[in-house]
Amino acid sequence: MGPGPSDVHPRVLRAMSTPLVGHLDPSFVEMMDEVQDLLRYAFRTENKWTIPVSGTGSASMEAAVGNLVRPGDTMLVPTNGYFGGRMESMAERAGGEVVHVDAPWGEPLDPADVADAFDEHQPDVFGFVHAETSTGVLQPDVPELTSIAHEHDALVVADTVTSLGGVEFRADEWDVDVAYSGPQKCLSCPPGASPLTLNDEAMSRVLDREEPARSWYLDLSLLEGYWGSDRSYHHTAPITNVYALREALRLVAEEGIEERWARHRHVAGALKAGVEAMGLEMNAADEFWLPSLNAVRVPDGIDDGAVIDYLLDRYDLEIAGGLGDLSGAVWRIGCMGHSARPKNVSYLLSSLADAIDAQDASVSVDADAGMEAMQTALGE
Ligand SMILES: *Cc1c(COP(=O)(O)O)cnc(C)c1O
Q1: 150 in the same domain as 42
Q2: Cβ atoms 145, 152 nearer than 8 A
Q3: Interior angle at CA 354, CA 353 and CA 356, nearest 5
Q4: Structural domain of 30
Q5: CA gap 43, 180 in Å, rounded
Q6: Last residue of some domain: 238, 255, 272?
Q7: Which terminal residue of the chain, N or C, has fewer Cβ atoms less than 10 Å from its own Cβ?
């Protein structure tokens, strides 16, 4: 129940014990098509350029930023969380200049601020984080943000690492040019092959670059040769991770993407109701609550790390502390993919209540009220 990796579904673990074939084996080539189709389904897109990038979410992130940002380009990035900062580092390494749209950690971007930043800086690329894992904030108003960017002829990159397969995201309908994700969050798959999708406009900007992308490994104009129509060798695909991703995406398709979004809202909603009824406070306002990552404020007088250690030692249960500006101030409780189940929420609430009570501080929580609120929210 941390910020990822989430629990892996048994079917995905089983798929990972499938014997290897070559990365150009006809059966593997067929599987690549299938994975691409399933990724399009999860991203809600028709984009031809939809692939798993070899590596973790940061690899698909760097593939997006490092290919789109050309030397001298300006990229607009957010300051309201940890991962906007990582976008900034990647854009700088790509030779870009970075400008900011500000919002405090724990709040989403305001479209009016984004519009002001566009008027002031005229960026070529705009990146935002749809589901900020460091703060538990979901960015609303995505179509509004993309239309501001497109009025200024900029391309939009969305970080959907903690939303894909868990929280509503619609690449085509919302006009997002590029979106990247990771497999080990709401897709409940081990890290290693990370979703990326680009529309034609974004891909033509990449293919028209005068100077090649600085990373050879992540150069999408070269990867095109393997994941595009040629299917010729670029690097050896992480075969086992592709098996795993395929199975994880099949589980998404079997459940139905909208049903899966609804399950995350329902189950994490019970978690949130339980935490609040116990007397704890969520970090994000209700309107921006992110079901897949619940940031809960650490009560005064409680040592966040001691509770985290207690949960791991006594209950074999993982949650995480805060990052950056929220270090020591929040616990981050994931509710992702296969982990988003009522029994996990019930276990978490009772264990967390015990862990806080065991801290010998003046703080006490109402465990019974928490369990009752959870059951009501689950409709039991
Ligand atoms: C986890 C995460 C990443 C980075 O993914 P890794 O798999 O750790 O490389 C990027 N963005 C967000 C929002 C994340 O939560």
Answers
A1: yes
A2: no
A3: 65
A4: 10-255
A5: 9
A6: 255
A7: C
Our answer on whether the CB atom of 191 is closer than 6 Å to any ligand 1 atom is yes
> Ligand 1 center to residue 238 CA distance, Å?
19
> Per-residue pLDDT for 380 more than 70?
no
Q: Looking at 255, 275, 290, which one is the last position of a domain?
A: 255
The residue contributing the CA closest to ligand 1 atom 15 is 133
**Number of structural domains, the chain?**
2
Strand partners, 192: 55
Q: Is the pLDDT of residue 96 over 80?
A: yes
- Specify the CATH number for the domain of residue 163: 3.40.640.10
* CA 133 / ligand 1 centre spacing (Å): 8
Tokens of 200: 């034609």
Same domain, 217 and 137: yes
Same domain membership, residue 156 and residue 20 = yes
Phi, psi angles (nearest 5°) of residue 98: -110, 135
**Digit-coded pLDDT (tens) for 300-350:** 999 999 999 999 999 999 999 999 889 999 999 999 999 999 999 999 999
CATH of the domain at 291: 3.90.1150.10
How big is the chain, counted in residues?
Answer: 380
